[in-house]
Write a sequence for this structure.
């Protein structure tokens, strides 16, 4: 795994995996409840794997805005995945995370920037780190 990359192996893509994480995972919210994450941890696997997916509801706003939010969440995760990676490798765990917006919308935040998103995603990742 590249330190700052986000390869295909590091993404959750199949509907089966999405359904599994949503049905068996735990929910965590950012401090101001703008973002949430559903995560599933399986310890002592053959290979240490960290997978992530990013979702924004259609009700949140127009497509351009939703795509920007997903890009910003993806970038925040990519730059800060080293928070979780060493611990996952040590414990040989499988960690699957689905990040999504919770109470943020186009109407309330017409312009959204990385500085708004990154602290929230980092806080969620730190909460997940404590549960590994």
């Amino acid at each position: 795994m590249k330190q700052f990359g986000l390869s295909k192996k590091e993404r959750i893509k199949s509907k089966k995996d999405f359904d599994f994480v949503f049905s068996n995972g735990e929910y965590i919210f950012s401090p101001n409840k703008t973002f949430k994450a559903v995560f599933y941890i399986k310890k002592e696997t053959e290979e240490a794997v960290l997978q992530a997916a990013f979702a924004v509801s259609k009700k949140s706003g127009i497509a351009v805005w939703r795509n920007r939010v997903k890009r910003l969440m993806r970038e925040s995760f990519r730059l800060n995945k080293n928070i979780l990676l060493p611990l996952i490798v040590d414990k040989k765990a499988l960690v699957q995370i689905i990040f999504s917006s919770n109470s943020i919308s186009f109407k309330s935040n017409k312009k959204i920037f990385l500085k708004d998103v990154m602290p929230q995603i980092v806080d969620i990742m730190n909460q997940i780190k404590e549960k590994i």
User: Anything to note?
Assistant: The longest helix spans residues 63-80.
